[in-house]
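Subject: tyrosine--tRNA ligase

B.,
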Amino acid sequence: MGRSETDDQSAAQIFYPCMQCADVFFLRADICQLGMDQRKVNMLAREYCDDIKRKNKPIILSHRMMPGLLEGQEKMSKSDPNSAIFMEDTEQEVATKIKKAYCPPQVVEGNPCLEYIRLIVLPWFNSVEVKRAEANGGDKTYRNMEEIEADYTSGALHPGDLKPALARAINLILQPVRDHFANDPEAKELLKKVRSYKVTK
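Prediction pasted inline below.
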């Protein structure tokens, strides 16, 4: 939990990592794909395999944390639905969240919309399609982050044009997931069950 061994710790701070570790085995996970903030507990699960003489250790895939969509959020938070894009979000929900996202004009540093383009959209599509009126420069296809950041910093690329491009790209990525939940009866029932749970802080 980011504390040193000399710090005072409550019982919850001891039990919480143990419970996270137990999740891996309870779920019978072969692959644990989580953020870097979960890496230590995932490694604890692998070390525990040595203690119990388990040969097949879970594979750990750690990825960087995505920033929250709202100002000042270093990472997405499932307890604040407006700060995160969920796999089951509708097309309209994605568009609304991105429309409300923190994206100050001409500011690259700490801009979550630009981070999503850098880390998700460009690697996925190798380009970003910005659609805009001729009076605002017309449609433009960006193929690298340097060009996007240069236009964004100069003001040639406005948040009002960047955000819809980001929303379109994210929605294209999520559409196969939506189709799966819409067309597979078992998946549809699972999604209904998941949505029935209330997220608490």
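The two ends are 17 Å apart (CA to CA).

T.
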